[in-house]
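User: I want to check something. If I give you two sequences, will you return the structure for each one separately, not as a complex?

Assistant: Yes, each is folded on its own. Here is the first sequence with its structure:
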Amino acid sequence: MSQPFETLPTTLTADELVDKAFSRASRAGSAKSGIEGQQSMLMTAANIVSDNLENVVTGWPDFADLDPFYYELADAIVGVDDLRQHLNELSWASRKATDIRHEYEGRLYDGDEDTARKLRKQAFARLADVVEEIEDDIAAVSEAREALRKLPDIRPDEPTIVVAGYPNVGKSTFVNTVTRADNETASYPFTTTEINVGHVERDHIRYQLVDTPGLLDRPPEDRNDIESQAVSALEHAADAVLVLVDASGNCGYPLPDQLELRDDIAGRFAAPVLTVCNKSDLTRDVEADHYMSLTEDENVDAVLAGAIEAVGYEPELPYDE
């Protein structure tokens, strides 16, 4: 399962939608004459408004079916309840455009061409009013699309190892070293820092490693509400967590602060949390599950193996009953 918001349909602005509907209607009407021309214009404009809005709504995934990881992220960034309300308004406008078409279709044939033209203009004015009424909703849906489609492609159906720890302890270097290639860089819309998602394969199973600068790199009291909710989302995705610490203090943060962050993560995540002492060539003065030195390339593969063992992933295999 890939990122569920990546292929969301483009959302026209209210002005763009009205311009598209009326310009297409004008071309459709020019191909016919008399009342039939007015009828063609009405049908074309109403259908474009209705179909465009409905396509936007149906292009969004059903939030009830989303993996909790992406549901939490969407809720943190745009507010799921608010977004649902905006999409409901678009659905209402889509149905209203169809209702207007049905209301005027029969009336166009009740009089002469001039009367039909006046009625068609009335219908156009009402269609424009409907679109104008949901202008803010259209803008909100468009902004939500732009924010969510930029989310990193973290796949909850693949075993996931989250790499945490203070800045400068070696998180990104570790992910880059063990994955060696196939790394993706993406940004959370609510942070200024990019994250790395790398992949490694063992025994035909692909594991994803997620580096978390801007989220799991500082005390919880320093995170804003949105970042805290994003951390909650990561709790759903993580199958194991590596917390890197630098006992030498060269990272710029005291070891007690690093261990306090480790303890908070251990209390928050249901997944196994392993403490990894990096820069072990300088000091091992901390109790840890693993010791390594990225600069000296010591014990790095063993740390990865320990993380994979902690995940304990067993793929579902087909069997004969």
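And separately, the second sequence with its own structure:
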Amino acid sequence: MKKVKKCSLIVLLVILAVVLCALLVFLGLYFTRLETIGTMEQLTDYADGYNLYRMDVKYDYSLDDIIGYDIQDDQTMIDAILKEALPLLPVKIKAPNFGCTAFTLTDTDGGVHMGRNYDFRKNTSAMLVYCAPKGGYRSLAFAALDNVSANVPDENIKKKLASLTAPFICLDGINEKGVSIAVLTLDSEPVRQNTGKPVISTTLAIRLVLDRAATTEEAVELLRSYDMFASSGRDYHFYITDASGDGRVIEYDINGEPRELIDTPSEVVTNFFIRHVDQVLPNQKNGIYGHGRERYDAVLQVLETEKGNYTTDTVWNAMKSAAQDPNPDSITSNTQWSVSYNNTDLSADIVIRRHWSDVTHCELETKVTAPLK
């Protein structure tokens, strides 16, 4: 009887030791993730429930590990992100889609700006994400929370945890070197390069540029070192600007095989291949070449009208000229946010869902966010 009790006690102690070890491992993994959740803050309060939030990423992440998970499709991309952001937890997210308009200008004081409208048919809240990766550049960026089913991210623990993936699903942002980037959708078949290089997906490319590029040229060369996988069954291009005003559209040649990366200097970009602007007419689809010429023309008209007198007002005038109301027949309608990045003083001013009089100012250096009067 004593032997049985002794054996039972040993088994119980072993079980307790295993549970304790598992708990310590879990706490080790999630302590800084819980710290990150603790920084979450709501910055606006709109009746429709779609708002701007902020989060300061406290946990360490390895972009190389995510890329090293051998991304082949949407599911492996999502699995790779979840392994890094939420190890050991069963959380589901979906791959996002992106519309939009972006442009660059230099104001009369020499300040470089990138203006960007994020357009998407389905309504979303936005998360302002501050990152300071080890060995990388600090950045602020914006993620669409509907893509992780967390439009009210502080509503419950499930949504708080889902929001921890935000660094890897950002759609635009700026880093401490003054490099800004935005992604915009196209109408062509999704690019899937297969040249033997490591594979990177759409939003991970944004994180790569924000973490590691000090100039537009460096960003282009970084992207050239990867095979691009366009996620969510859509094709995309990127717009990148740096503190010198070097604005380029990064596209994957629609008429080539393999689809090689081509960078084209441009002031403005919307949802068509900038290299084939002569093939694109306004207010219509233009086959594989894309759409959105009318928004491109509208921004160019503002820039031409105010040429020689550019100010921050010019940025907002241009974004307003290209903003879109909801249209159930167009995936790239319905401007969800408009953001004016200042590549010189490293800040961003953002408006959610066309509330033009309600601007939130975001500083990269100090991480201060405040209403802009």
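Because they were folded independently, the notes below concern the second chain alone. Residues 40-372 form a domain with the Penicillin V Acylase; Chain A fold (CATH 3.60.60.10). The longest strand covers residues 112-119.
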